Amino acid sequence: MDLSIVIPLFNEEESLPELEAWIRRVMDEHKFSYEVIMIDDGSRDGSWKVVESLIEKNPNVKGIKFRRNYGKSAALYVGFETAEGEVVITMDADLQDSPDEIPELYRMIKEDGYDLVSGWKKKRHDPLSKRIPSKFYNAITRKISGIQLNDFNCGLKSYRKAVVKSIEVYGEMHRYTPILAKWSGFYNIGEKVVEHHARKFGYSKFGMERFVKGFLDLFSVTFIGKFGKRPLHFFGTLGTLFFIGGFFILAYLSYEKLIDQEYGIADRPLFYFGILTLIMGTQLFVTGFLAELLVRNSSTRNRYVIEKRTHPK
Ligand code: UDP
Ligand code: MG
User: Fold this and answer.
1) What pTM was computed for the model?
2) Does the structure show a pLDDT above 80 at 153?
3) Ligand 1 pocket mutation pick from 206, 208, 210 by most atoms within 8 angstroms of CB
4) Residue 248: how many CB atoms within 10 A of its CB?
5) How far is the CA of 10 from the centre of ligand 1 (A)?
6) What does the pLDDT read at residue 216?
7) Nearest CA to 2 among 23, 22, 30?
8) Edge-to-edge strand order for the sheet containing 61-65?
9) What is the DSSP secondary structure assignment for residue 97, as one 8-state letter?
10) By CB neighbour count within 10 A (0-12 exposed, 13-18 middle, 19+ buried), where does 127 fall?
């Protein structure tokens, strides 16, 4: 199968028929073998009924329905798990992304050798209140991740199959799949300017809280990528540095006290600072140790992305 098109949707009943017809037209034109995986993320409108009717019309459409709303990342996770195509495309259900972009996104993976190609809504049809924070966001994400993309949060992206089978999207991390891919060793990340349309039906499902959640997730994505399998290296190093600092401060003060018995050690602000750093150091170290114990028991502790094997397992 050439393509899996993964579409998370939450209350998008009006858009779906047009979206399916448009995708079908593009797929037939280019003679792709494909599947469209529609994940109904607990919609409360008639979306699921529409998905069922589309399946009757087009056997390439597959539907998955969540009992409740888990969020876009959860929908993508299940879609990625299900996908069978050699190239996996994600797109939003609201007709803001254009299916006409799919053939080129496919080609860039197959021929140009990209692992992941992210859409860039260069000319964006969204309110200013969304565009300005988004610019700021993308700048921070570029800095932290070292990945030079203009538009991390574009819903339209294409992936080599191995990428979606190696990364685990959860929380609100659908924004950061390029970072997850990079941490899994897929460094060839490209970008393509894509057309973007204003929302035709319904309303945006993400409010301003997206920026708070987005920031926290950027932090955890980076931290987990770097120290997720060895938290003690982070907390332990920091803790040890604090501890040593505190120890020397107190050793110095004790030495002064030894020389001069009259010396009021508790009058020195440095004394409290020394105690504080010593305690903080111990706490950080213990935190790291507890985190390390958690990792030992987690199912991802030995999940590595294997690119090749000379002998089957
Ligand atoms: N979506 C989803 N679950 C949610 C929120 C959104 O599956 O909890 C889907 C939504 O139906 C759409 C895509 O994610 O297909 C992007 O959402 P939206 O268009 O509301 O985001 P925006 O374009 O405003 O960033
Ligand atoms: Mg949208």
Assistant:
1) 0.87
2) yes
3) 206
4) 13
5) 6
6) 87
7) 30
8) 61-65, 34-40, 3-9, 87-90, 157-160, 116-120, 189-193
9) B
10) exposed
